[in-house]
Amino acid sequence: MATERLDQPRDLRRTLRPHYDPEAFGRLSEQIARFLGTARFLVYMTGFIVVWVVWNALVPESLHFDPYPFIFLTLILSLQASYAAPLILLAQNRQDDRDRVQYEQDRLITDRNQAETEYLTREIAELRIALSEVVTRDYLRAELQRLLDDMEERSPGRRGR
Fold this sequence. Notes:
With about 160 residues, the protein is mainly α.
């Protein structure tokens, strides 16, 4: 009895179950669902049904392969619908998953932008507060003018005139 080594990958096991790649199958289902939702598909399907009905209604009876109630055509359309519905649902689920991831990324970006905006708002408020304490040019001119006027009033040469 050989012990399994944890530092090496396991041997592949043979199973009766077929292996498929879920991503490849999902991409294929999206392509099919995308095609089923086009006008081209409707035109092709309509043409197919018209040819089927015209062939089985107008050609000699010996060449009919699906006579009037067109039961075989009904079976084919039912089979097509039974496969189309799950493929469309699979494609929608995959799209929902992508939308959910995109929504989460958008939410994170929005949160980051909001945090940055709040930070910048606080910084601007701090700058405004700091600037209110800074001497402005007009204030400095007014103070210098007041000092000059005071000096001129106190100067000895000015008193005698």
